[in-house]
């Protein structure tokens, strides 16, 4: 999940929670205020009725409406002494409407001039109050929703602006490629943390590039310097093997040394080739037909591994797969991929090679899937890797592919290892 979306979601949830709490508190505050106003109205009505009763006692014998429904009931002095004025909600049956109507009730006690105590029960309809509360709720809900939408949009716009320098920095980091100089970072920002992060990224990138260049230079120099000593040692061993005084056991030991030295020579040549590829020393490029390269290499490679009795299935279309690459590197790329599929194939297995105008697919029989991330690393060898393997074949293939703007990937498909080589432009589209 993107940082922007994560932050936006968290802020939205917090805002929603706060608005919900505020809405509940506001609702109860409104209800409390409305009830207070209703009770004040009842109190005012009761004072009017009591004053009228004091001036005209005949009202005590009446029930009716004087701005509300009321009735008087005589009570004893003992009941009056313990009487507590109370307000409560109730319902009253309305004959004309044939239904119960909600009312707010006030019960209070007072004494007439003659000493008699009376209870006044005063009711007032709260239908209008309920309608008002409902209207308030609707308006409150509409305002809540509108505020939430506006705030969410505003928050998202603000967050996008705030995180824009971070997105530019991430895009810049994605442009960094091993062995290539750092692109210019144009990321103006007033946020100190993003400035520090950008400076740290540039500094780390420069140090990484410097270390990479030093490593490549060391490997190239070391490989170049080792060529002559290795050739001399190999020649000495060959001369020593021609000595007639050598015993059979000594010749056997010498043969093992020669084989080990041969692997060292191949490893040295592979490292030197990798270094030259990454240094961009193969500058001469041309349009190379992968189909033609395969037609030249396949017969010889199949003859070499004839003992494994591998069944070759070759598929191609009318239009060949043409890449822009150095011819020698293109031959090494195709050769390494095919040889890898032959070496690590089982006896009597399948080898499927298919070309289209935009891709090369090589599939071979396998026992189990491989680690696609580690497969193209230098010196990586699978469990069934051969002892004389340098572990650089696929690393060289990936390096050549990158230099030619090609994508080389691996996946396990229906019990077969699949290597796919496509143009980067075709992959993106």
- In spatial order, strands of the major sheet run 1-2-5-4-3
Number of domains: 3
- The fraction of residues in strands falls at 15-25%
User: According to CATH, what is the topology of the largest domain?
Assistant: Beta-Lactamase
Distance between the termini: 24 Å
What's the architecture of the largest domain in CATH terms? Answer: 2-Layer Sandwich
Topology:
Layout: H1 3-55, E1 63-65, E2 69-75, H2 77-81, E3 86-94, E4 99-111, E5 117-125, H3 127-175, H4 192-241, H5 248-278, E6 286-289, H6 290-304, E7 311-316, E8 322-325, H7 327-343, E9 350-356, E10 359-365, H8 393-403, E11 406-413, E12 416-423, H9 424-428
Parallel strand pairs: 7-9
Antiparallel strand pairs: 1-2, 2-5, 3-4, 4-5, 6-8, 9-10, 10-12, 11-12
């Amino acid at each position: 999940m993107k940082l922007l979306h994560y932050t936006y979601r968290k802020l939205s949830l917090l805002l929603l929670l706060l608005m919900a709490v505020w809405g509940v508190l506001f609702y109860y505050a409104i209800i409390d205020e409305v009830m207070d106003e209703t009770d004040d109205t009842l109190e005012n009505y009761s004072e009017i009725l009591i004053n009228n009763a004091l001036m005209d006692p005949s009202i005590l014998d009446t029930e009716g409406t004087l701005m509300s429904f009321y009735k008087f009931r005589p009570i004893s002095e003992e009941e009056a002494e313990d009487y507590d004025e109370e307000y409560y909600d109730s319902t009253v049956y309305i004959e004309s409407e044939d239904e119960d109507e909600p009312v707010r009730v006030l019960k209070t006690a007072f004494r007439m001039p003659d000493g008699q105590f009376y209870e006044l029960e005063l009711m007032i309809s709260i239908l209008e109050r309920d309608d008002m509360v409902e209207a308030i709720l609707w308006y409150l809900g509409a305002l809540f929703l509108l505020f939430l939408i506006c705030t969410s949009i505003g928050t998202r716009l603000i967050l996008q602006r705030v995180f824009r320098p971070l997105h530019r920095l991430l895009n810049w980091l994605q442009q960094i490629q091993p062995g290539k100089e750092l692109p210019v970072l144009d990321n103006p920002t007033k946020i100190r943390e993003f400035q520090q992060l950008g400076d740290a990224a540039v500094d780390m990138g420069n140090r990484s590039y410097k270390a990479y260049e030093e490593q490549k230079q060391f490997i190239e120099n070391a490989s170049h310097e080792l060529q002559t000593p290795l050739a001399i040692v190999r020649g000495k061993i060959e001369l020593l093997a021609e000595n007639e005084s050598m015993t059979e056991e000594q010749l056997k030991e010498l043969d093992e040394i020669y084989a080990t030295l041969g692997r060292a020579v191949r490893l040295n040549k592979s490292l030197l080739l990798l270094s030259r590829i990454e240094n961009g020393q193969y500058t001469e490029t041309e349009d190379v037909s992968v189909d033609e390269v395969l037609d030249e290499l396949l017969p010889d490679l199949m003859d070499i591994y004839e003992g494994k009795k591998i069944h070759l299935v070759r598929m191609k279309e009318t239009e060949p797969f043409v890449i822009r690459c150095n011819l020698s590197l293109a031959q090494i790329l195709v050769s390494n991929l095919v040889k890898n599929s032959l070496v690590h194939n089982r006896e009597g297995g399948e080898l499927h090679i298919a070309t289209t105008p935009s891709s090369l697919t090589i599939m071979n029989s396998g026992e189990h899937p491989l680690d696609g991330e580690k497969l193209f690393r230098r010196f990586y060898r699978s469990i069934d890797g051969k002892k004389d393997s340098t572990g650089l074949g696929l690393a060289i293939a990936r390096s050549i592919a990158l230099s030619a703007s090609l994508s080389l990937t691996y996946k396990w498909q229906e019990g077969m290892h699949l290597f796919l080589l496509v143009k980067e432009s075709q992959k993106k589209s």
